[in-house]
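Ticket #430: bound-state structure for uridine-diphosphate-N-acetylglucosamine.
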Amino acid sequence: MDAYIVKGGAPLKGMVTIGGAKNAALGILAGAIMADSTVSIDNVPNVRDTGVMLQAIEGIGAKVQHVYSNSVQINGTGITNIDVEYDYIRRIRASYYLLGALLGKYHEASVALPGGCAIGSRPIDQHLKGFRALGASVDLDHGMIYAKAEHLHGAHIYFDVVSVGATINLMLAACMADGYTVLENVAKEPHIVDVANFLNAMGADIRGAGTDVIRINGVRRLHGTTYSIIPDQIEAGTFMAGAAITHGDVTVNNVIPKHLECISAKLAEMGCTVIEDDESVRVIGAERLRPANVKTLPYPGFPTDMQPQITVALSLADGSSLVTESIFENRFKYVDELNRMGAHIQVEGNTAYVTGVSQLTGAQLAAPDLRAGAALVMAALSADGFSKIEDIHFIQRGYEDFVGKLRGLGAKIEEVDDDYKERKFKLRYA
Ligand code: UD1
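RESOLUTION: The complex was predicted; output attached.
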């Protein structure tokens, strides 16, 4: 089984270039099928989730051409099939964006209902409420969502919860609806703005993305365009946290520092030196981190997708910290793994009580989900001795060339698929 083997103790030092935002890419790739000519998309992160989305798009009849590893061309004019199979939904929940895109363009879509997920129950009631408000009938039958609209029209939709997925799905559907749509209480994440900018580049008329209210004038057609995806806030944040966790000195390049402010501020509060430049942020770790309290919130609050990474950093701080998870109820699964490395963390409900220790020790670990998996790798890089991290397919969903980038920063890490490679690694770094 594929795993990462890590020898801890070397601080991460140097520069790392951040790729395109996975969560923006998933909305953008789905939206690209709505154009009536070819769309070229650059800075697509070459990770498992985008690969599955591209397969799902091909599966319904769109043409996908890989120009090079981070650039694709999509032409959706040949779509004949409005059914997105369960197999894709099972592998990435975000394939439900094809529901919004197909409904917007073809007024009909059929997509398997996404199931539960490792980080908690994830309802999609807000997506469905929005589609219904646009005039679609939405039926759930045998695990499928079937949405159809004789006349897709603008509507005033007030979301009951702030949802990234519902905001993107409704922008996709409403941008080709007949008339004016207002979306209120929307998510404001950088990838929301990026998806809106992309749709506007194809001829949509979407205003207000990045604020609480998005206003959309429906258009009859969307045309081809060339678009480059923004840098990934969470990939950048993970390497920034890595600098703090390993007492390192890491410059993340090709980023938008404004998108990272909530992470930069927390790391500075914990005693790191954070230096922002136009397109880079440098984080110099402290000798000993200070404790801090963290509460995850929708953007511009502290991202839930950075909660495990910051908790690993706090587990090494000089004192006690509280981490409150307010977005997903089951996002502390990795804590048992971290405690096996010598951390002192107790979870009660949605709060983790963290008592800092001065050193973690290497252990055999399993990644419970994408971000927690990356956080455990960072913990292993700081720990005394060897660690092995299994279930790395979760990590590969969202980090392009994670091992290569970490090694570029001096990490001792290798992907292994048999005992022989593991023994060789251990001998090399004994
Ligand atoms: C997206 C991100 C994910 C990130 C999350 C929060 C993608 C592909 N994934 O997930 O990495 O962790 O945003 O930043 O972009 N909710 C409802 N009803 C709904 C929809 C959501 O109650 O119809 C709730 C969820 O259970 C959760 C909260 O709203 O408690 C936020 O979820 P949402 O923003 O929708 O997350 P995702 O879009 O699934």
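RESOLUTION NOTES: The two ends are 23 Å apart (CA to CA).
TICKET STATUS: resolved
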